[in-house]
Design brief:
The protein is an alpha+beta fold. It has helices at residues 50-61, 98-114, 133-145, 200-209, 218-222, 244-257, 267-277, 280-286, 295-308, 311-327, 331-344, 349-359, 368-380, and strands spanning 11-17, 48-49, 68-74, 80-87, 118-124, 152-158, 166-172, 183-184, 190-192. The strands form 2 sheets. A 7-stranded mixed β-sheet has the order 1-4-3-5-6-7-9, sandwiched between helices. A two-stranded parallel sheet has the order 2-8. A hairpin with a 5-residue loop joins β3 and β4. The longest helix is centred in the N-terminal third of the chain and has 17 residues, at 98-114. It comes from Gordonia amarae NBRC 15530.
Length: 395
């Protein structure tokens, strides 16, 4: 999709999301009281205060980013199209690296493809003064890159997204495009970050997904740390062949048992499940579960098997997990699962394809094209899958 190469890791979150408001001591630009009404489709969405936006970013990503460039693209109604995080790759003199320059240009192209009408850039980095020329240079690059998709509505800088950290607006104010800015920057152009772990957006994520904000991206990786086992049945190569219909029914039976702990699956069962997940017909049929009421149980099982199994079987389990997160717009979780899959088997084609799609910014909606095929495969095996209940993100 792009002529530029994006730095790994790229963390992307998609889909019609809003940021839950919070009270602030800074006065809005128009002198009216801060917005404290829920952001939903029944009321016009007002600009979100800059402090609210910065504080909400960890909840949107799932972890607290550091040394990062975070770009949020918005529709005209101020809903978020995508939140994207990139490593802030600087040279020793503080100037943006060649790779970072190419990345910013690529993000601008993505913004146009997504139909963004406003863009906000947030820099979280502790290597220079937040008002320093190093970060203003990066925001200037963003200004140029996003000129054709609403312009840079705001460029916000903080050393860390942590309670009490000062932020400063290196860019802010009207874009001149006729589209109201989605972010409200106070006249002082500065403020203090609130606690990202207890922000309204973080609380909403806990309630709706059960996920808390992690302190760093490395915590995502530890959730897939392999579990050691002395036996050979669940750590050896996956078996081959077998009755695909019987294997698919076996996986569905395990999902309905709702066994949350990795140790709850015995070694013999793990070996049989490894055979199922490396049967491509079964694997492709199981992709549909990501949009059904079994999604949560599937996430638990795929994560458990990614930790229990080795080689190609581990790659398949991690790829299923990555697909489940990707189609839901949970790019950070998907990226880490794909790293796990490709470490286990660099040639596992499904992981390779998903990784390419994620790192070129392909929208999660494209994965829905696979869902119908998954149901057709299951039907051809005489197996009924639960109906889809999830909505497409960003639609």
């Amino acid at each position: 999709m792009l002529g530029t190469v994006t730095p790994r890791p790229l963390d992307r979150v998609s889909g019609g999301r809003t940021i839950s408001p919070m009270a602030h001591h800074d006065s809005p630009l128009d002198g009216s009281p801060p917005d404290s009404s829920p952001l939903d489709d029944s009321v016009p969405r007002r600009p979100v205060h800059a402090t609210t936006l910065i504080t909400a970013i960890p909840a949107l990503l799932g972890f607290v980013p550091d040394r990062s460039l975070i770009v949020l693209t918005f529709r005209r109604d101020h809903t978020i199209i995508a939140t994207m995080r990139y490593d802030l790759l600087l040279r020793q003199d503080g100037r943006p690296s060649t790779e970072l320059r190419a990345t910013i240009a690529g993000i601008g192209e993505l913004g146009r493809e997504y139909g963004a009408e406003a863009v906000v850039a947030v820099i979280a980095d502790d290597r220079h003064r937040i008002e320093g020329p190093e970060y203003r240079t990066i925001l200037a690059l963003c200004e140029r890159a996003f000129a054709s998709c609403g312009g840079l509505s705001a460029g916000l800088i903080t050393a860390r997204i942590a309670q009490g950290q000062r932020w400063w607006a290196g860019r802010g104010g009207p874009t001149g495009t006729g589209v109201a800015a989605p972010v409200q920057v106070p006249a002082s152009r500065e403020g203090l970050v609130e606690d990202p772990h207890t922000s309204p957006t973080a609380v909403r994520e806990v309630v709706t997904t059960g996920r808390r904000v992690l302190d760093c991206r490395d915590e995502l990786r530890t959730m897939l740390d392999p579990l050691t086992c002395e036996c050979r049945s669940c750590t050896g190569p996956a078996g081959s062949g077998g009755d695909s219909a019987a294997l698919l029914r076996l996986v569905l039976a395990h999902l309905r048992r709702r066994e949350p702990r990795p140790a709850a699956i015995g070694c013999a069962d793990a070996a049989t499940l490894a055979t199922a997940l490396t049967d491509l017909t079964v694997r492709d049929a199981l992709l549909a579960l990501a949009v059904t009421d079994l999604r949560g149980d599937a996430e638990t099982l795929w994560r458990t098997l990614a930790r229990r199994l080795n080689g190609t079987a581990r790659a398949s389990a991690a790829s299923l997990l990555a697909h489940l997160h990707y189609i839901a717009g949970e790019g950070a979780y998907a990226a880490v699962a794909l790293d796990c899959a490709l470490d286990a088997d660099p040639d596992w084609s499904f992981a390779v394809l998903l990784s390419q799609a994620l790192h070129t910014g392909a929208h999660p909606a494209m994965l829905w094209d696979i869902v119908g095929h998954s149901y057709e495969l299951a039907a051809s095996l005489g197996v009924d899958l639960p109906p889809p209940t999830a909505a497409q993100v960003g639609r």
